[in-house]
Amino acid sequence: MIEIKSSKISDGEFNRGVFAMGPISKGTLFHEAPVIPYPNEQHVHIEQTLLADYMFSYGANHTALLLGYGMLFNHSYKPNAYYELNFDNHTVDFYAYADIPAGDEIFINYNGEVDNEDELWFEDNNKETL
């Protein structure tokens, strides 16, 4: 249902994104990314690495490393997908927020809510266009 390809919006060495292989209907669960959770107090060690940019808040007391395609979705303030934490399955579940045509890149809002436009930890030159 999804695949990894080069993204036009990512810059630098790792210019990957997640793309729809076929049409994905609004509301469809299209990916369940397994997580490796760890206590928040251990995050100080992760912050010293490149991995810090790929971690998700995972409840009040934990942070999680996403596996699968979970850490390769790019950010947009106008996303076509959203995610929910699934503590029972230890996954982050990704759903289509709108119909996603085949070949389109799939974007999430890194703030966790589709309409949250709070500034992020990185400079986002695409806030108005994506």
Q: How many distinct beta strands?
A: 9
CATH topology: Beta-clip-like
> What gross morphology would you assign?
globular
CATH architecture: Beta Complex
State which percent range the strand residues make up: 35-45%
General description of the model:
A 5-stranded antiparallel sheet has the order 4-5-3-8-7, with no helix packed on it. Strands 1-2-9-6 form a 4-stranded mixed sheet, with no helix packed on it. The chain contains 1 helix and 9 strands. It is mostly beta strands. It has one domain (2-108): Beta Complex (Beta-clip-like), CATH 2.170.270. Residues 1-111 form the SET domain. GO terms for molecular function: histone H3K37 methyltransferase activity. It holds the Pfam family SET. InterPro entries: SET7_MeTrfase, SET_dom, SET_dom_sf.
